[in-house]
Structures are given as structure tokens and as C-alpha cells.
Amino acid sequence: MSTPATPTAALLAEIAEIGRDEVRGGYSRPGFTETELALREWFIGHATARGLEVEIDRNGIVWAWWLPADGSKDGAVITGSHLDSVPGGGAYDGPLGVASALRAHDLLAARFDAPAAPIAYCVFPEEEGSRFGIPCFGSRLAAGMLDPATARALVDADGVTFADAARAAGIDPEGIGADPERFGRVKAFVELHVEQGRGLADLDRPVAVARSILAHGRWQATIHGKGDHAGTTRMEDRHDPVVAAADVIQAVRRVADATADARGTVGRMVVIPGGTNVIASRVHLWFDLRHASDATTRHMLEQITEAVQAAAEAEGCTAEIAEESYSPEVSFDADLRTRLEATLPEAPVLDTGAGHDAGVLASVIPTGMLFVRNPTGTSHAPDESTSDEDAEAGSVALAEVLEALTT
Ligand code: GLV
Ligand code: MN
Ligand code: MN
Questions:
Q1: What atom of ligand 1 comes closest to residue 354's alpha carbon?
Q2: 359 lines ligand 1 (CB under 6 A)
Q3: What is the 3-state secondary structure (H, E, C) of the chain?
Q4: Does the Cβ of 128 fall within 6 Å of ligand 1?
Q5: Per-residue pLDDT tens over the stretch 323-360
Q6: 236: CA distance to ligand 3 center in Å?
């Protein structure tokens, strides 16, 4: 790896070897695993070295406090992001926001001994939901949008419950849940994130202010068929859930193609039992739908639900669909956005189709976001990128924003 050209890039370089995935490429850093914990320890080490007061809240969110002279935590401005990743993800989705928070702190600490109002640098666990299926896991719990009993009972692909994973990560699973008292003391949350499209690259600008997030949700379709022998079962006797799943994949694509500005994805499928010479007995297939309008997203879901039932019936299978998460359309806080735009007058304003903790927390506190240029426009894949210079420009912009919001 080449020598990082800027301090923000140097911070990211320190974690470049943690969670590398030699099979998929890129990084696999699932939530509440040793990998995510190692990254969290890296952050805590930096926070401690800077004299920040570190606490881990009841939902596993890390807070590193820089307090004003009176030591108050009321009216705090918070920033930060996540350190977990999708399977085979890029280096910047999440970590850029965390590294930029540390770098912004250093820029501000060079200007004054203490902030005029409290600032906390935060790390949110399991933002991608790649382990327990629910994105923005920590912020959803904190916002009261995920029932603690439901969360405790979730299982990962290896059958480990969230309750057990939480205990292993040092979090009391009985203590998780809505945290209105803590978030009631927060004045604003600004999350910096690598852009996950080509908006800034096309505009030739390094940093943008965010306006909105598409409504989005995740559903699991389970198709039950009849397991049997690949060689001895005549074609007319089969009830093959993989064949039904193929129709469902086509239906998701068809519905999304037919809906203006919609997104529809099948990115994950598990075939049970999964043998080359075995007709499957069951298929689990997850689909992700997104659109600016909640009603349109729900309408797409209705059409796909009908297609799932029709596909199952045509193959003599049965099917059911379960909603794993739903995030309504988010418009970031208008007053906060006006302040961000006034602080960064050169920054364009962009919408996004990607979910974020700032989107979830928008339901309980004023939130906003900054995006940093990604020349490839690719995300959730190893090609995700940002230049060292743009990473630094993002930290500088974040420091300006934190200073403006705390004075
Ligand atoms: C998270 O990055 C998502 O948009 O799913
Ligand atoms: Mn992501
Ligand atoms: Mn992210």
C-alpha cells in the first residue's frame, strides 16, 4: 500500500488489514464479531489517547466525549458512523465517517482547548445488518424502533442468538432498548459518509450535504418444496423451490424496472440442503426494495408478494414472506440542513438510496449528513473508493460543521 497522503487517510490505513476477506475480496466485518470489536478497540484507543471520555451505552454504541469547560453533556452535537461492513464490502462505507470524526477532533483541538458545547464521536454497531438481518441495529434499538425481545431472539447464520453475541461483546442483552434520556440531550447528529453513487464525481466536487434517503426495506421469502434425488425423480414429479425462486428473482427485477426510480434487488439466497445432486427442500431468498415514496414501495411489495405465491403454486410449492426491516423515506432536518449549507456554501445537496444510522435517528433527533466523493461511484463492493485528498477535505468540512454547531 502507498503511503497515505493525508492524516485522515493515515487513520484509515491503520485498520486496512482488519477484516480483509480473501475469498470475497474487500472486507467482511460483521457486527458484534471479534472483527468489529477489534475495530471498535482501535477507535477507543484513539479516543483515549486524545483524552476523550469513552462510554459504551446500553445498545453497544460507543461515545467518545469532548466536553466543554463546565463538563456538561447537555445540548451535545454528535458525529461518527459505523465500522462493520457488508460481506465483501469496501474500505470506506462506515470507517470514513469514524476516521473523519477523529481527524475533525484533531483539527478542532488545535484551535481551542475545549468546545463551547459538548461533542461526542460515536460508533454505531451492526449498521449493515449483515449478521442479524436488521440494518442500523444499534440506532434502531436506541430509537425504540426495534423491540428488545425480538432483537435478543434473532439468530445469525451459525445459529448464535443476538443475546449470546451481545454478551460476548460485553453488552447486557437485558439492558438493550430505547434510550430517550440519552438522545434527549443531543442537539444534532451529523454523519459523514463516503458517497455511494457518482453524484459528486459528476459534479466535480469533494463534499456534499445530504437531503433525503429513499424508503427501503428487506423481506425474506421462504419457499418450501420437496427434497429428492436429482437422478431418480422424473421432471414431472418435482416440486423444486429453486425453480420457483428463479421466477421470484425475475419478478423483483420486473417490478422494479416497471416502477420509475425504484430499486429492487435479490442479493442473497440460501438453498437447503444445498447439494449439487439434490433437489432442494427449501429456499430462503431475501429481497430489498427502495423508492422515494412509502406507498410506492408498499405497492411494489404487493406485486412481488403475488408473484411469490404464483411462482410457488406453479411448482407445487408453498411460500411465505416475512418483513425483516422497514425504513420510511427520510428528509433530513431542514433547519440543520440549512446550517450545513451555510457552513459549506460550495457543497451541492444530494439525495441517496442508501440507509444510514442518521436516517434511523432522524425519528428522534435532528440529523444531517455529509457525503465525500467516490470516483468509482461503487459501494458495498471492493471497488468503493475515495482519494486521500477528498477524505481530508471531508474531515475539514466536518470540523467546520462541528464548530458552527457548537458555537
Ligand atoms: C446500507 O448501507 C444500506 O443502504 O442497505
Ligand atoms: Mn453500507
Ligand atoms: Mn454505511
A1: 4
A2: no
A3: CCCCCCHHHHHHHHCCCCCECCCCCCECCCCCCHHHHHHHHHHHHHHHHCCCEEEECCCCCEEEEECCCCCCCCCEEEEEEECCCCCCECCCCCHHHHHHHHHHHHHHHCCCCCCCCCEEEEEECCCCCCCCCCCCHHHHHHCCCCCHHHHHHCECCCCCEHHHHHHHCCCCHHHCCCCHHHHCCEEEEEEEEECCCCHHHHHCCCEEEEEEECEEEEEEEEEECCCEECCCCCHHHCCCHHHHHHHHHHHHHHHHHCCCCCEEEEEEEEEECCCCCEECCEEEEEEEEEECCHHHHHHHHHHHHHHHHHHHHHCCCEEEEEEEEEECCEECCHHHHHHHHHHCCCCCEEEECCCCHHHHHCCCCCEEEEEECCCCCCCCCCCCCCCHHHHHHHHHHHHHHHHHHHC
A4: yes
A5: 999 999 999 999 999 999 999 999 999 999 999 999 99
A6: 47
